[in-house]
Amino acid sequence: MKKLVRNAVVATLLTVAGTTAVVASPAHALPYPKDNESITIVYYSDASRTVEVGMLVYGNCLDDFEYGIRTAYSTINRTTCPRDL
C-alpha cells in the first residue's frame, strides 16, 4: 500500500513539475537597432506562424508604430536603411 501511495505522489509531482515547466517561459527582450536599422516584429496566433495578429516596427529608418496584439509566437527582422534618410 505504501508503495502505491508513494508512486501516486511521485506521479502527481512529476505532472505538476512538467506543467509548470511548460507554462513558465522566459520573457523575450526586444533587440536594440543600430544607427541605420529598423526592427520589425510580426506576431502570430500560434506556433504554426500562419495567422498574423500584430506587428511592431521601431528603430531609425521609419516612424515607430504598432498594431494588433503581442503573442509568444513571433519573427524578428532587421532592416538596414539607406544612409540618405
UniProtKB/TrEMBL annotation:
Domain of life of the source: Bacteria
A family per Pfam: DUF6289
Annotated protein name in UniProt: Uncharacterized protein
